[in-house]
Amino acid sequence: MAVDGLITAERTVAEALLAHYRVHARRLPWRSPPGAAPPDPYAVWLSEIMLQQTTVAAVIPYYERFLARWPTVEALAAAQDGDLMAAWAGLGYYARARNLLACARFVAGELGGRFPDTEEGLRALPGIGAYTAAAIAAIAFGRRAVVVDGNVERVVSRLFAVETPLPAGKAELRVLADGITPERQAGDFAQAMMDLGATICTPTRPACLTCPLAAMCVARARGTPERYPVKAPKKAKPTRTGTAWWIEHDGAVWLVRRPDKGLLGGMLGLPTSDWREGAAAMALPDIAGDWTPLNSGVRHVFTHFALELGIARLAPGPAGAERIAKALGPGQWWPRAALAEAGLPTVFARVVQAVMALGED
DNA sequence: TAAGCGTGGGT
DNA sequence: TACCCAAGCTT
């Protein structure tokens, strides 16, 4: 048996990591201290959905606002769709917000307001995949679950110097993670692994000198921790171009609700042309009037393409204003002075900024 | 299995 | 500047 505080080959990964976590755990709004009673499953679920592919720093203010406004799953289930989407605006991956609402309504309506306490039950809910089901089961319900996120993949790939490139290597990494996951305290263990990945076993320049697992780490022994995880090469990102249509009448701007599926689904936005590769010219809708192409535009990078969005402006006048809905489909006039509160996704918030910077005319 | 799906911060 | 990356899920 290892002497406490001294890391030896006999000490397991979980023992070394949990001892470190008891002292160095990050204090986060949705987290209970190490060894304490589990937090409210609603809080765990809400934080885990927000944290999918999103940094802790970005999530914290959204989490605080959501929990204050909708303190229970029943309260969230009663929210208006538009209010929920607007509150999520800026956080990205908007399918998460749509699934969040669907999940809350199912739990509140069909499950008596109680989240399932097993991985299998959680996995069946909208927006909850393998990682999130395992994380909630372990953190909120004390289950032994193998929690594998990007942090865990990086830590495990270095511990065992796994050469199989991601994403093909995911299955292998999961088996290895299973092998080091303890029977008890799986929730603390999962959070300890993620803390380690976020603060010590970082993608670049890992702080191996302060790592509680350094003595057990094969990549460290080889002197090449940054080599892992090995990743398959990624594809080039194309550029698409399009035009946003700024139609303003009587101090208000025409906004449209985007379809539920696809990019920025369910979000409010400016009407735009199609976004296509190669198209360069300003594109205008079939609305007669004195269109003004603006010199400024917006460049915005999405996950799988970059967008260069030009802006064309129209002041249709009272008669023309009534034809807008017919030409562009359903939408609403939003007061220009209140656009900051419309809950627009970032790409359109930037268009608003660009137009506002031009002044009233 | 692979592609689609946001955004902001770090290097 | 141009990448890379972050507590992934859905289809």
TrEMBL record:
Record note on cofactor: Binds 1 [4Fe-4S] cluster.
Molecular function GO terms recorded: 4 iron, 4 sulfur cluster binding; 8-oxo-7,8-dihydroguanine DNA N-glycosylase activity; adenine/guanine mispair binding; metal ion binding; oxidized purine DNA binding; purine-specific mismatch base pair DNA N-glycosylase activity
Essential cofactor(s): [4Fe-4S] cluster
InterPro entries: A/G_AdeGlyc_MutY, DNA_glycosylase, Endonuclease-III-like_CS2, Endonuclease3_FeS-loop_motif, Endouclease-III_FeS-bd_BS, HhH-GPD_domain, HhH_base_excis_C, HhH_motif
Pfam families, A to Z: HHH (PF00633), HhH-GPD (PF00730), NUDIX_4 (PF14815)
Catalytic activity: Hydrolyzes free adenine bases from 7,8-dihydro-8-oxoguanine:adenine mismatched double-stranded DNA, leaving an apurinic site
Enzyme kind, highest EC tier: hydrolase
EC number(s) from the headed UniProt entry: 3.2.2.31
Keyword hit for Magnesium: no
Lineage top rank: taxon: Bacteria
GO BP field: base-excision repair; mismatch repair
Its job: Adenine glycosylase active on G-A mispairs. MutY also corrects error-prone DNA synthesis past GO lesions which are due to the oxidatively damaged form of guanine: 7,8-dihydro-8-oxoguanine (8-oxo-dGTP).
Similarity field: Belongs to the Nth/MutY family.
Name of the protein described by the UniProt record: Adenine DNA glycosylase
Organism: Sphingobium nicotianae
